Amino acid sequence: MAKTDTKSRILDTAERLFARKGFDAVSLRTIIAAAKVNLAAVHYHFGSKQALVHAVIARRLRPINEERLAKLAEARAKAGRRPLKLERLLDCLFRPLFRVQADPKTGPTFARLVGRVMGERNEGLHKFMMGELADVIIQFGAAFEAALPGLTKEEADWRSHFMAGAMAHTLCNADLLVRFTGTDADASDYEATVRRLIDFTAAGFRAKVTPPTRPRKKK
Amino acid sequence: MAKTDTKSRILDTAERLFARKGFDAVSLRTIIAAAKVNLAAVHYHFGSKQALVHAVIARRLRPINEERLAKLAEARAKAGRRPLKLERLLDCLFRPLFRVQADPKTGPTFARLVGRVMGERNEGLHKFMMGELADVIIQFGAAFEAALPGLTKEEADWRSHFMAGAMAHTLCNADLLVRFTGTDADASDYEATVRRLIDFTAAGFRAKVTPPTRPRKKK
DNA sequence: ATTTAATTCAAACGACTGTTTGAAACAGGC
DNA sequence: GCCTGTTTCAAACAGTCGTTTGAATTAAAT
Fold first, then answer.
1. Which nucleotides in chain D lie closer than 7 A to a protein CB?
2. Helices of type H across chain A
3. What residues make up the domain containing A160?
4. Domain membership flag for residue A30
5. Taking chain A (219 residues) in consecutive chunks of 10 residues, what is each chunk's mean pLDDT?
């Protein structure tokens, strides 16, 4: 396996370009030119562009999801019989994801990549992502319901949906806000982001449910 | 102007297809085949595909933003000197946007379209959207800060960001959640969605700010 | 009816896409 | 050295893309 770095170079370059411009907007020829490898190498090592996209995502996302589930299991073990605190739950979900921003090796490059995935319209990619996230969705979904005994399942689902939106949007447009507010995108500031996101979403989860508007007044 | 409906047919068909598959994923040839017009008609009436995309978006989004600002102005007038209530503010922002879901003419088709725009990576499209939304962002941004005297500007900006994420994600994947929870996507149910979104985001805005874990001074 | 302008049409343009091919270059085992 | 399997390479394939062209058609104005 002497020159297997070809595979890695494709992965790294593709990740960088995908994050910057999107999956469909970056052609294979753009990637192989930047990575200085042959065009056919992509199909030799990955089989297709779609498979390359999946590989790029899975390489980063899988460890994150594993860490999420591990942290959740650990928190559960520590809590014993007591119900998990909502903030603790959100921390298990957010921290492994946002921590990659602090990693100087991956840098903010990957953060946008993951955020990008959620907004992607590609049908196949969506299926793939749902498969990758299935465990996380199931485990955390159940945990949220358990941590919010006052909410109906329907209401809890909606709020999980809102939370996911806030999370994805934050990850995807992190730089946008930073430039907008002038805040310094200090790499280690991911903790502040996580803290803010937990504050916001935890309060959202716990919000009092406003009853439907009473009998209609005139239109 | 007898057969000017060619222009409208292109606009309507493009909107439908864009909403379903995304802007880049739908080719002009797909549109003109469904609309039963000639390929060159698109360039004759709009000039380019990008201009068509802009026209499709602006046709729907402009009235929405005008209504948002009108509602905000009205609320301000009614409140007089008193500060605007946060829920009222959010209602001005959400309702005009989600109300289109109830319109049987546009239907949920357009809802996904607008939601889709926010997740789009296209550089030019992003600039265009920022231009369309500039007034709304400025006006509501200031209003949010005024309604949240206890928050620093930085914190208020972050939470506006989270709110925008929840809003966009909800609009974009509305059908996804409906299918997931089995809730009926009754057209008139947009009011329930708006209510839920206001509950969640208002509580998020009002959340207590957790101080950093270490006794670290802020900058 | 003739002229003028607005609109539609079929056909092609050049550039780009993901993918495939078959021959080279290379590796390590014998 | 030869041989075997892995990896790289230039070239082409078969489409699709947005855009342009110039003539044909239609509508309106004179």
1. 7-12, 16-22, 26-28
2. 5-21, 28-35, 39-45, 49-79, 86-98, 107-119, 123-147, 153-172, 174-181, 190-206
3. 59-206
4. no
5. 77 94 94 96 97 96 96 94 94 93 76 76 86 95 93 92 93 68 59 95 96 57
